[in-house]
């Protein structure tokens, strides 16, 4: 129950999540944070993301981020008994999520064609690196690979032109968001027609969609570096840190120049109009930077805010979490997460702070519980554990 007069959007929705890593689990996790009941199926050794990065007992930051509120069942899908369990679970699922390379899920006997025969209303979500077919379909698709080939690393290049990877999993994260949106659209269509469908989302397509504007800029400028949107604009060093300052229009430009005591520049023909400022962006930003370094960030934030100039301090994550607006908006929720205790996790944008937020599961934490719900007798469960078909966490 929540403090909202409405139930959670996906309350009653049953999701079977066979994906690993981040893109697929995050897609299913977003459905779960909005009310769906999500069973995370892991191989006996667990999702590989549990060993990626720091963390204890398989609970890395990425494993926590992608799996809040799910129940975990360890089932070996390569064994006939494991496959049969998964087929039984899929018959009552509303959504099935998988992100194996093309051909793997078919070899396991869990393809869309197979599952939809017994469950025609199933929304089957396939997440791949490069799509289901084509010359790159079977290539491994890691974050660094996708950032490289989709232009993301180049647009983030250093001042000397060296391409740089954005230091978090942008392709996986945004693919999870697009896949959750596509799943919601498929569920809406099912509500009208009663028919499920096969939703296919690739990391490559998601990276393209995310970068639609800079890709168009590159086309319109014949591959030349895109012109700045406005000037002055950027991140500037102050005496004790960094701030971002942006001038969107003539009024804001005049106010910015007045705060910096650079009103003479506003009358200079090189900077008097936006087209001229764009031509002379380097010189103008240099003049602004020379002024800003003389005072502390707090001084400039107060001055610019009073003058209605767009500005903000550059914060680290601790500063962001502690910022007054972040606290007021309850952007973060405390997640009681094993084995750490309380951890700050952002809530789903658009959701209510009152929505429940449950911890991410340990490997196989709910295996026997889930098998019992399937109607598997205790003696059979014990035999499955002994045969290595399933695994229950201690």
Describe this structure in words.
With 394 residues, the chain is α/β, with parallel strands linked by helices. The protein folds into 2 domains: 14-213 and 358-391, Rossmann fold (3-Layer(aba) Sandwich); 233-316, formyl-coa transferase, domain 3 (2-Layer Sandwich). 41% of the residues lie in helices and 15% in strands. It has 19 helices and 12 strands. The protein has helices at 23-33, 61-66, 80-90, 104-107, 112-118, 143-149, 152-155, 170-193, 203-210, 212-220, 250-259, 263-266, 274-279, 281-292, 297-306, 317-322, 324-328, 367-373, 378-386; strands at 14-17, 37-42, 71-75, 95-98, 123-128, 197-202, 233-237, 242-246, 310-313, 332-337, 341-346, 390-391. The chain has a 7-stranded mixed sheet with strand order 6-5-4-1-2-3-12, with helices on both faces. Strands 7-8-9 form a 3-stranded antiparallel sheet, with helices on one face. Strands 10-11 form a two-stranded antiparallel sheet. Helix 1 packs across helix 8 (170-193) and helix 8 (170-193) packs across helix 9. The radius of gyration is 26 Å and the shape is elongated. The two termini are 30 Å apart.
Helix/strand class? alpha/beta
Name of the level-1 CATH class of the largest domain: Alpha Beta
* CATH fold category name of the largest domain: Rossmann fold
Radius of gyration: 26 Å
Could you tell me the number of beta strands?
A: 12
- Write out the strand line-up for the largest beta sheet, numbering strands in chain order: 6-5-4-1-2-3-12
Low-pLDDT stretches: none
Count of all domains? 2
Shape: elongated
Major pleated sheet: 7 strands, mixed
Helix content percent band: 40-55%
**Averaging pLDDT over every residue, what do you get?**
95
- CATH level-two architecture of the largest domain: 3-Layer(aba) Sandwich
């Amino acid at each position: 129950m929540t403090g909202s007069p409405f139930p959670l959007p996906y309350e009653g929705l049953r999701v079977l999540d066979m994906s690993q890593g981040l893109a697929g689990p995050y897609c299913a996790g977003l459905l779960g944070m909005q009310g769906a009941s999500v069973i995370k199926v892991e191989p006996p050794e667990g999702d590989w993301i549990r060993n990626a990065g720091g963390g204890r007992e398989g609970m890395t930051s990425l494993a926590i981020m992608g799996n809040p509120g799910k129940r975990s069942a360890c089932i070996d899908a390569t064994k006939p008994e494991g496959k049969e369990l998964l087929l039984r679970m899929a018959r009552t699922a509303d959504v099935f999520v998988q992100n194996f390379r093309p051909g793997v899920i078919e070899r396991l006997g869990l393809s869309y064609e197979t599952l939809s025969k017994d469950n025609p209303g199933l929304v089957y979500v396939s997440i791949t690196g490069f799509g289901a077919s084509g010359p790159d379909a079977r290539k491994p698709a890691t974050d660094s690979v996708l950032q490289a080939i989709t232009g993301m690393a180049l647009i983030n290049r250093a001042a000397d032109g060296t391409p740089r990877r954005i230091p978090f999993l942008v392709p996986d994260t945004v693919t999870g968001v697009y896949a959750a949106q596509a799943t919601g659209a498929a569920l809406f269509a099912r509500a009208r027609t009663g028919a499920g469908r096969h939703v296919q989302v690739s990391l490559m397509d998601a990276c393209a969609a995310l970068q639609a504007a800079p890709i168009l800029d590159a086309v319109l400028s014949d591959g030349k570096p895109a012109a700045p949107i406005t000037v002055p604009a950027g991140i500037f060093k102050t005496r004790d840190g960094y701030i971002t300052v942006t001038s969107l229009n003539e009024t804001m430009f005049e106010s910015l120049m007045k705060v910096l005591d650079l009103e003479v520049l506003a009358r200079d023909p090189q900077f008097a109009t936006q087209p001229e400022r764009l031509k002379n962006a380097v010189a103008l930003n240099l003049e602004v930077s020379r002024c800003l370094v003389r005072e502390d960030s707090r001084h400039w934030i107060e001055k610019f805010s009073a003058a209605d100039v767009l500005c903000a301090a550059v914060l680290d994550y601790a500063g962001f979490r502690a910022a007054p607006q972040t606290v007021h908006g309850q952007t973060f929720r405390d997640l009681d997460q094993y084995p750490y205790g309380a951890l700050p996790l952002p809530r789903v944008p658009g959701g209510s702070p009152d929505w429940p937020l449950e911890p991410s599961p340990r490997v196989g934490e709910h295996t026997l519980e889930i098998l019992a719900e399937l109607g598997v007798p205790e003696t059979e469960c014990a035999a499955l554990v002994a045969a290595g078909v399933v695994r229950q966490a201690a």
